Structure formats: C-alpha cells, structure tokens
Amino acid sequence: MEPKVDTINEIRLPEGLRPFNNAVLDAMSWLNGVAHLVLGLALGAAVLLFTWLFIQDIMTALGADNLAQGFLHGLGTLMLLWTVSALITAEIRYMRGHQLTVDTFVEVAIVVLVRKLITMPVQSTLPSPQEFLLWVAAALLLGLMYLVVRYAQTISVDEPAAQPPAASLAERGGLGDRRSGR
Hints:
Order of helices and strands: HHHHH
Membrane topology: Multi-pass membrane protein
Number of helices: 5
Strand content: under 5%
Transmembrane segments: 34-55, 67-88, 100-120, 132-149
InterPro entries: P_starv_induced_PsiE-like (IPR020948)
Organism: Rhodoblastus acidophilus
Low-confidence stretches: 164-182
Number of strands: 0
Helix content: over 70%
Structural class: mainly alpha
Region (Disordered): 163-182
Distance between the termini: 29 Å
Shape: elongated
C-alpha cells in the first residue's frame, strides 16, 4: 500500500529536489524570523516615538489658546499608539507560534477610522457632511465586520476538532513548525 501524501510539494517535487526544497524552506523560515524581529523592534521604536509625540502634543496644548484642539490632537496621537499596541500584540502572538488573526487587522482599521473621525474637527478644512457620513458608515461597517469575525472565531473554537491525518509530514521527520524549531 502506498503511503498517504500530505502536501502538494510531495506530489509534484521530484525526489532529488526535496533536499534543496527543504534547505530553501529553512532559509526562508530563518529570514522570516529576522523580518519579525525587525518588525518587533520597529514597533517598539514606534511606541517610544508616539509617546514622545503625545507629550509634545500635551505641552503644545497647554501653551496654546485652544486647549480643546490640542486635546483632540493628542487624542489622535494616542489612537496611533493604540494601533501600534494592537500590532505589537499580534506580533507577540505570532512569534509565540500562534496564527495571525483577521480581527487584529480589523481592529487596527477601526482605530484608524476612529482617529480620523476624532481629528476631523481640528483639520484646516472641515469635510462635507457626505464625507463625514461616509467615514462614520465605514467605521460602523468595520465594527460589524469585527463582531462577525469574533463570532466566527467562537464558532470554530466550539466545534469539535477534525480527525488528524494518520501520519503528518512532521511526524515522519519532514517539515516541522519552523517558528517553534520542531
């Protein structure tokens, strides 16, 4: 009886190319790890920069005649910090071996839209009522999408897991989870 084939690569790759393929996959996994390290450091630097920008916004607002405008500007900076925080959380989860989930990116998009709505009153030119309604509608639709995605995640958690294949590629000594080193 012929063994069950788990991946398309095992079906289509000639036997002689499999070691080369595995070496390329190892190199790509290593480069991906370096890329995520750089992303993590860049996000950490962004936290420091946005914190500094927020402090400057507060100092400017205290020295200006229009405290409300300075407050809204500072709140917009805090929204950027919140966005970076959500991305850092997603990066930490990914580097610990979890999958990236769509809800993180929907949350980031919502925060960006809310920031836009908050900072609209302090812009040099105010948007038309139609443009403002489009921004509000986009935020509401993203909020609805976020709820749908979160609900779908709870459904997938509650469902019983499918039966695993008899012998996976990792169990046979093939490709493992490159992030965890298995």
